[in-house]
């Protein structure tokens, strides 16, 4: 993040106290901090009572083989039973689990009892395909109820799912299927985006040409578009799942049984499969959801406006809301289809009380103008949240004023795919919020800001964000690569989890997360690795070398800017090549990784040891004066690159 933004942030002095009525009836009060501090294990044992355990656990935490944690040792549990059956058994089967709103305007209301029946059918379908406990299932779906059904069917059988975001390309899908050796793929013909059907099945067909171990593909019909069909392999959801029995007795699994693998970008080219297990993940997500969103399941209508293909969707559209018996909204499409007020229409229609979304969406709505949300009645909202990237104070204030009616608390929640659950956030009934600050770790969570040597920095200083106590929803390892788990997260500072983010602690001790300190960038709240995009670029036959940086962008937070050196043999004008390369990156990774700018250069700035100095390229991409060039092997390179950038934009 640019220094100027940093100092702007830290000049922010506005404070917003919790509304008195919310504070008076809040789920979590200030004493929870001291309670958790006094006896963390007792605190987490108490939170574990949110779940129904078939066999109670004997020990809260086994940290004897750190950093490999075991939570709720000896406990046995079924995730799907906890999400569904027990609510039905308790007489809440008629409560709505999801109000589904399709992009074209079709709707479905799904109760807990109906969802349970559908999950049982899907579980029986997977059994018929030979899926056993421990087998992996890949899910590549649009935002439709079947996606939740598929995930919970896997969880019910103890078959870890790996959900691949529907915007990812066939190559990304292939890599993830191969990475966790999935044998079954669940997909759809397509989904609706931006007013049009957007196909998914062709990417599955393409990916599977290189995934010989995938036996079957279950295809949900959403758009009705034509699909190629592989007889014997492909099965229509409606026929195959629809014919199954709605009876299925869940088996309980060890608290540490794998629940899912979610791939996320890291500092090296290959995405990492983050492993979450069952008991701790469910306890951590359910607790944080209850605490941060002050969930009152009987009366709230809760909406996480994210995609299920990201961790935010896993934790706060699927698992935590269901564990807590919440009624949620699920919206399929883009926020501005068919008009820029779609979200506000949904909030009015369903009387949504809690909205959780990303700053990039808020900044987009700011651009559309405050008159758009003003057309709808948003007065049911009592709490609004933000996730995915730092929220700049302007966006925070706009959100609070124009969406929250100037009265709702804004919870700015910091967490990661790896943490599984919200870690740092204001508590809506307790904290006086500061626009731009995630404030304090939740009760039970311990975070710090440290310097290069790992020492805690004094208030008023910046450093690296670390987590210094294990927490229940923590990742357990990188799938199939324990060494990478230890290296990436636990080696930078011994015995402490290194989050990869820079942060500052202000004079009051509150935390301001400033963004990544590694080669991970954050585009519209989505993590992308510079190396991954560079590899995609150099995999194109016309590219000799590439360097990618994340440059600040008013809408998307950061944008991908690439500098490429073409091979001498490359034909065609620069403009054609640039278009070709942007398309190539889309098809290699996904549209989200498509560079905003690609600059063809004849040389890249390198140190004498051959390291590309991305810092200088970032200066150019952000139209700043270029920093210190003294370590460059050839300092004339930067002048040429700068000229190129100026003439291209
Ligand atoms: C949940 C999620 C994690 C990275 C994280 C950080 C950034 C997330 C933030 C935030 C500042 C917040 N991030 N929330 N930065 N303030 N409230 O987004 O997971 O996709 O793994 O990304 O996102 O940089 O390290 P994930």
Automatic annotation (TrEMBL):
One of its GO terms (cellular component) is cytosol. Keywords: Acetylation, ATP-binding, Ligase, Magnesium, Metal-binding, Nucleotide-binding. One of its GO terms (molecular function) is acetate-CoA ligase activity. Its EC number is 6.2.1.1. It catalyses: acetate + ATP + CoA = acetyl-CoA + AMP + diphosphate. ATP binds at residues 388-390, 412-417, 501, 516, 527. Mg(2+) binds at residues 538, 540, 543. Its cofactor is Mg(2+). Residues 532-611 form the AMP-binding enzyme C-terminal domain. Acetylated. Deacetylation by the SIR2-homolog deacetylase activates the enzyme. Residues 90-471 form the AMP-dependent synthetase/ligase domain. Residues 31-83 form the Acetyl-coenzyme A synthetase N-terminal domain. The modification N6-acetyllysine is found at residue 611. It comes from the Bacteria. CoA binds at residues 193-196, 312, 524. It holds the Pfam family AMP-binding_C. Catalyzes the conversion of acetate into acetyl-CoA (AcCoA), an essential intermediate at the junction of anabolic and catabolic pathways. AcsA undergoes a two-step reaction. In the first half reaction, AcsA combines acetate with ATP to form acetyl-adenylate (AcAMP) intermediate. In the second half reaction, it can then transfer the acetyl group from AcAMP to the sulfhydryl group of CoA, forming the product AcCoA. This is Acetyl-coenzyme A synthetase. It comes from Flexivirga oryzae.
